[in-house]
Specification:
Elements: H1 2-6, E1 15-18, H2 21-32, E2 40-41, E3 46-48, E4 54-57, H3 60-67, E5 72-76, E6 80-81, E7 87-88, E8 91-92, E9 100-101, H4 108-114, E10 116-121, H5 141-147, H6 149-152, E11 156-162, E12 165-168, E13 177-181, H7 187-192, H8 213-223
Parallel strand pairs: 1-5, 5-10, 10-11
Antiparallel strand pairs: 2-3, 3-4, 6-7, 8-9, 11-12, 12-13
């Protein structure tokens, strides 16, 4: 949750669109601590405070303006991710005759081409981190480059947070890089759970920032006293 919260660090006054319990807790924690200008919504038509109290109205037209203008930072999930950040949430196997049907592409193409995007993966494994996704829903760096200049205007993949580590794409070719390891996790564990070669710094990988006592209190007593976070990953 701390790593998810930190994904919004330095964003300023943008709309946070977290998808899932842990990203939502992370966004609310960021708003309550280091990102007071972050905008949160109720998922429908209101701008809300961290406790859900309405702070303003977000009509559909204004929301669409934010969606297409780079003023939103989305944190989505992924059924598959490849080394350049292409994401799949639609199907497993050949698109014409898939082995498994999933959510469908939904808003992933628009999100990734029009806003900064991060990903939350509660179970880091080779089933998710694959050499090549079966279908591109969220647009990765190589796909955006191939699509041309207009596709790159607001495109930017910030972070991938998993139960093992934090990763990003801050490499010359925008291939995935290991940024930090969660406490007790090794580089070898992450490599073994990844279906492609990660970029790893030769001088070592630091540990992911741990929560402060104040942050733990906010998570446990204010933001998520019912423990919804434990349905995605037990901490």
């Amino acid at each position: 949750m701390i790593a998810c919260a930190d994904a919004w660090r330095g964003d300023g006054e943008v709309l946070a669109s977290p998808m899932g319990a842990v990203p939502s807790i992370g966004a609310r924690l960021a708003r309550l601590t280091f990102a007071p200008d972050l905008l949160l919504t109720d998922g429908e038509a209101l701008i809300v405070g961290p406790d859900g109290t309405p702070e303003g109205w977000l009509p559909y037209r204004q929301h669409l303006t934010m969606v297409t203008g780079g003023r939103r930072h989305v944190m989505m999930g992924a059924s598959q991710l490849d080394r350049f950040g292409n994401q799949n949430i639609s199907c497993i196997g050949d698109w014409h005759r898939p082995d498994r049907q999933l959510l469908g592409a939904r808003g992933a193409p628009v999100n990734t081409l029009n806003n900064p995007v991060s990903y939350w993966v509660p179970k880091h494994s080779r089933r998710v981190f694959v050499e090549r996704v079966d279908m591109i829903c969220g647009v990765g760096y190589d796909s955006a480059a191939a699509a041309g200049r207009s596709a790159r205007r607001h495109h930017g993949l910030r972070r991938v947070v998993t139960d093992l580590a934090v990763l990003d794409f801050a490499t010359p070719d925008h291939s995935m890089r290991l940024v930090s390891l969660h406490p007790g996790v090794t580089v070898e564990q992450v490599r073994a759970a990844t279906g492609f070669a990660l970029v790893v710094a030769r001088d070592g990988v630091p540990s992911t920032r741990e929560p402060t006592a104040a942050e733990l209190r906010l998570i446990r007593e204010v933001i998520d006293p019912a423990g919804a976070r434990n349905r995605e990953v037990r901490v």
